[in-house]
């Protein structure tokens, strides 16, 4: 990051190679839509690029970039909530929200569906710590909350996940 | 004792997804076109700039007090207090803003500081005031008008300090920009409130608390709102 701030283009390539797969995975999990995730990835890197002069030396880069990506997602979602949508001829919204399948076929599908059913705060905490691989402290920074709150959300989310997956195992 | 992860055996979804080549090229083009060194001011530099603005404002208030021929004993006493609060501002700035985001202390601690420090400041103003009217007298006539005038002047100058500091720290905190903004607002409020004690001829308790003390709460609140917009990248 320091070399990128100093204006080295090859340093950007290294930074991009290191950050983009994790950021893309994180944004894809948030949006559930590849095109939107790629749009947000572009917005995130543009913000990183514009804010590189104010990057404080010594700050961990991945949580910093994830926090920017999360804020971009929240801004976009807020803007979409107040944006006027043109209805199609039959009066429905142009992009109906995809429904999660009710009956998963495998354990990994069941886990994915169970994650989607969790309250947003629990899901975010689990995704950041368990999937993205941030530490509890880094996840707390990204979510703008305390470490204790993150631990609590992960714990409660785990309990709910376990219940959902137990019921799936009994059904199969 | 370490706790065993109860869901460790599950096949968790992968964390990484490779973006498409088109997306990569678009980002690369946007982020490397005309790339040049853009090293901003260091955290210490920004902190010193913030404290410099506070010091400048204190200087303006002292100059006003001296040119208005205030009794030197009162000015000296208030000045000692203001310098003490400048020290408190330095500790706050270096402990909660000058460190990299994510290492600026817990959120609870910073919220505690945002509530506790202004209360301490108001308590200090109460303690050092050397007269006290009945509250009913304070809310009518000249004392009320004077308090409103003083409050507005303190708010204006405090907002100048906080605004300047906010520009210095812009785009530096993607995690909790609101709290960092409130911290900057509080520092501006402390600079203005403490300086106002030097410049203001009234040393009445209600006047000091409401006109000089409440500006810290007001600017912290304003800083919270503006910080969310200005401090996030």
Notable traits:
heterodimer; A: 172 residues; mainly alpha; Rna Polymerase Sigma Factor, Chain: A; Arc Repressor Mutant, subunit A; 2 domains; 8 helices; 0% strand; globular; B: 233 residues; 71% helix
Compact overview of the structure:
The complex is a heterodimer of chains A (172) and B (233). Chain A is mainly alpha-helical.
Instruction: Describe the sheet with the most strands of chain A.
Output: none
DSSP summary: helix tally of chain A: 8
Rounded radius of gyration of chain A (Å): 19 Å
Count every beta strand of chain A, where a strand is a DSSP E run of 2 or more residues: 0
Biggest interface reads: A-B, 63 and 45 residues
Helix count of chain B?
8
Assembly state of the chains shown: heterodimer
Mean pLDDT of chain A: 80
* CATH-assigned fold name of the largest domain in chain A: Rna Polymerase Sigma Factor, Chain: A
Mean pLDDT of chain B: 85
Apparent shape of chain B? elongated
The helix/strand class of chain A is mainly alpha
Structural class of chain B: mainly alpha
Structure overview:
The complex is a heterodimer of chains A (172) and B (233). Chain A has 172 residues and is mainly alpha-helical. Chain A has 2 domains: 2-82, Rna Polymerase Sigma Factor, Chain: A (Orthogonal Bundle); 107-171, Arc Repressor Mutant, subunit A (Orthogonal Bundle). Helix content of chain A is 71%, strand content 0%. In chain A, helix 2 packs across helix 3 (34-50), helix 5 crosses helix 8 (147-171) and helix 7 (136-143) crosses helix 8. Chain B has helices at 21-32, 43-67, 72-96, 107-128, 135-138, 141-168, 177-199, 205-230. In chain B, 43% of the residues are buried. Chain B is built from 8 helices and no strands. In chain B, helix 2 runs antiparallel to helix 3 and helix 6 (141-168) packs parallel to helix 8 (205-230). Chain B is 71% helix and 0% strand. Chain B is mainly α and 233 residues long. The chains are: A mainly alpha (172), B mainly alpha (233). At the A-B interface, helix 2, helix 3, helix 4, helix 5 and helix 7 of A face helix 1 of B.
């Amino acid at each position: 990051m320091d070399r990128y701030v100093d204006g080295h283009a090859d340093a950007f390539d290294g930074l991009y190679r290191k950050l983009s797969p994790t950021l893309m995975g994180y944004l894809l999990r948030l949006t559930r839509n590849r095109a939107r995730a790629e749009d947000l990835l572009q917005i995130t890197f543009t913000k990183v690029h514009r804010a590189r002069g104010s990057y404080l030396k010594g700050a961990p880069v991945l949580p910093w970039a994830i926090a920017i990506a999360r804020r971009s997602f929240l801004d976009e979602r807020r803007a979409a909530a107040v944006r006027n949508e043109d209805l199609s001829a039959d009066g429905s919204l142009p992009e109906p929200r995809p429904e999660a399948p009710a009956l998963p076929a495998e354990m990994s599908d069941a886990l994915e569906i169970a994650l989607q059913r969790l309250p947003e705060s629990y899901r975010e905490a689990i995704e950041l710590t368990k999937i993205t691989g941030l530490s509890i402290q880094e996840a707390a920074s990204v979510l703008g909350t305390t470490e204790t709150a993150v631990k609590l959300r992960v714990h409660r989310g785990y309990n709910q996940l376990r219940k959902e997956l137990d019921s799936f195992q009994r059904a199969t | 004792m370490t706790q065993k992860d109860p869901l460790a055996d599950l096949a968790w979804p992968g964390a990484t997804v490779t973006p498409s080549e088109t997306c990569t090229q678009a980002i690369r083009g946007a982020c490397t076109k005309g790339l040049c060194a853009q090293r901003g001011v260091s955290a210490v530099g920004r902190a010193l700039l913030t404290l410099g603005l506070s010091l400048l404002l204190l200087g303006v208030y002292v100059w006003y007090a001296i040119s208005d021929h205030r009794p030197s004993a009162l000015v000296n006493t208030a000045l000692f207090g203001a310098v003490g609060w400048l020290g408190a501002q330095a500790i706050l700035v270096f402990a909660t803003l000058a460190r990299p985001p994510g290492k600026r202390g817990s959120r609870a601690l910073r919220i505690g500081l945002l509530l506790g420090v202004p209360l301490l400041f108001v308590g200090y103003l109460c303690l050092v005031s050397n007269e006290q009217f009945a509250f009913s007298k304070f809310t009518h006539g000249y004392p009320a008008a004077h308090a409103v005038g003083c409050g507005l002047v303190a708010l204006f100058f405090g907002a100048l300090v906080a605004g300047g500091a906010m520009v210095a720290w812009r785009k530096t905190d993607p995690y909790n920009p609101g709290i960092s903004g409130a911290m900057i607002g509080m520092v501006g409020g402390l600079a203005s409130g403490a300086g106002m004690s030097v410049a203001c001829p009234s040393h009445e308790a209600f006047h000091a608390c409401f006109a000089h003390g409440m500006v810290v709460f007001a600017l912290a609140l304003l800083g919270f709102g503006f910080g969310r917009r200005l401090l996030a990248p």
